[in-house]
Specification:
Length: about 350
């Protein structure tokens, strides 16, 4: 009865949540976990012991829901249970189906599967297959790594003796193939502007008069890219910003317009504020490195100006960016009659 109630509660909790894109948690993964096992056998009291285990599986993004399968192995240490001072533990192996509804870096999920429960020590005679239920919350702190808190329950029964397991664990998971993709150049002219040198004017022909004009040239430089739902500068972003510093030193009169951008996951209001935080983070770094604050204007563009497809993880990684734009004056020599 308790298991059926838990199953209904899990389904109800998940059904009330708003679906978001599940692609951040899709793919194959492998993890380890550790925590506490609460167990009892018929006619014996309930005791706690340490549990640790391994698990791994694969997740799919299906219309904003996360669907997955995983295998697991839990090893529950022995503890002494009264009356009779029976010392026992258990090992549990099995497979689960997984349903989750991600919200940004968070993934609440439910698991339902089958487990083989084998008692050890004083409960070694107990061994049985049973339903395996679980409820968890996972947090992605980088594209490749996450932590998860989880509750699972299973039982094994032989004759009149029944062994119940309730595990509370914290795990660390690694997702394969989630290394951030370096952002492509958002503005085609930005690479050329740093290395372009005004062509020398041709030698004037006899009796020709030349004059020098100042020409405004817009420039956009790739400033930084960010992790999902983050405004914290990464090491790769700092290297890019050092290139911006070189530009600021070369053109000391140029005003810098720092523009933050996001991918399309989340609400427009949230993404607007996130883009502003990213722009302010870049501005703070440039000021710290010596650029006068009055030369820099920071603003957020939200999700409105993508440079890549937000339907793919690679495209969203490119859209989580900051650009630094400016206008420089270049000398141009023309004939006096032009």
């Amino acid at each position: 009865m308790k298991k059926h109630t838990l199953h209904i509660a899990l389904a109800a909790a998940l059904s009330t949540m708003t679906a978001a894109q599940a692609d951040e948690f899709s793919g194959s993964w492998l993890g380890g976990k550790i925590g506490s096992n609460r167990s009892d056998v018929t006619a014996l009291d309930t005791k706690s012991a340490t549990t640790y285990g391994l698990e791994g599986g694969h997740n799919w993004d299906v219309g904003g829901f996360l669907l997955g399968v995983n295998g697991f192995a839990d090893f529950n240490d022995k503890a002494t249970h009264n009356p009779g001072s029976v010392n026992y533990g258990s090992n549990t192996y099995g497979f689960d189906a997984k349903l989750g509804l991600p919200s940004r870096s968070w993934l609440p999920y439910a698991k339902l599967g089958i487990a083989r429960v084998n008692g050890t020590g004083g409960a070694s005679a107990i061994g049985d297959n049973d339903m395996h239920l679980g409820l968890g919350l996972e947090y992605k702190f980088t594209p490749s790594w996450s932590i998860a808190g989880e509750y699972t329950t299973s039982s094994g029964k032989t004759g009149a003796a029944k062994l119940n397991n309730n595990n509370f664990t914290v795990g660390l998971n690694y997702y394969f193939g989630k290394t951030p993709v370096a952002a492509a150049a958002p503005v085609a002219e930005k690479k050329a502007e740093l290395r372009s040198i005004p062509a020398p004017a041709p030698e004037p022909a006899p009796n020709e008069t030349w004059k020098t004009l100042l020409e405004n040239k817009p420039v956009c430089i790739e400033g930084a890219n960010f992790e999902f739902d983050s405004a914290k500068l990464r090491n790769t972003a700092i290297r890019k910003l050092d290139e911006v510093m070189g530009f600021a030193d070369k053109y000391r009169d140029a005003q810098l317009k720092v523009e933050g951008h996001t991918d399309s996951i989340g609400t427009k209001d949230y993404n607007q504020k996130l883009s502003e935080r990213r722009a302010e983070s870049v501005k703070a770094y440039l000021v710290k490195k010596g650029v006068a604050a009055e030369r820099i204007t920071a603003m957020g563009r939200g999700e409105e100006q993508p440079v890549a497809d937000n339907k793919t993880a690679e495209g969203r990684a490119q859209n989580r960016r900051v650009e630094v734009c400016s206008t420089i004056k270049l000398e141009k020599k023309v004939r006096a009659d032009q």
